[in-house]
Design goal:
about 40% helix; four-stranded antiparallel β-sheet; Alpha-Beta Plaits; binds adenosine-3',5'-cyclic-monophosphate
């Protein structure tokens, strides 16, 4: 059954380019409520743990370097059908394949540096949200 929460990160390239406000505005405009949010920076060990599912992929080392090179904004978002609707809002992993008007089409540089993360399932949304937030940081 679909839950009403998903997890996102605005990745280091989004913060470096000054796109935080514009991306949060799109998230708000699409009807998501921010129930937790912080600016933080992952250590290499944390990024390896967060992306453990990709550890055998050829791009894993590059992904860990990218995700740890600067701060991110992590957030838990609430909306009916949150996981699916947020993935529609951000667009395909590869910005070349992302639909017009999606966050990745507007702000991502490449399949690797793709501006934002969105959980791919309700189960992963819960795991990823708990990775970054304690219960008392979620409202
Ligand atoms: P995301 O979907 O948030 O989670 C996995 C990340 O790995 C993905 O975003 C990209 O940042 C990165 N990624 C996925 N596919 C590739 C690829 N082919 N080459 C480099 N990085 C990738």
């Amino acid at each position: 059954m679909a839950t009403n929460r998903t997890f996102t990160m605005l990745k280091p390239d989004s913060l470096e380019k000054g796109n935080t406000g514009a991306i949060l505005e799109k998230i708000n405009a699409a009807g998501f409520k921010i129930v937790a949010m912080k600016q933080t920076r992952m250590s290499k060990a944390e990024a390896k743990a967060f992306y453990a599912v990709h550890s055998e992929r050829p791009f894993f080392g590059e992904l860990v370097l990218y995700m740890t090179r600067g701060p991110i904004v992590a957030a838990i978002l609430e909306k009916e059908n949150a996981v699916e609707d947020f993935r529609t809002l951000i667009g395909a992993t590869n910005p070349d394949e992302a639909a017009e008007g999606t966050i990745r089409k507007l702000y991502a540089a490449s399949i690797g540096e793709n501006a934002v993360h969105g959980s791919d399932s309700d189960e992963n949304a819960a795991i990823e949200g708990s990775f970054h937030f304690s219960g008392r940081e979620i409202f």
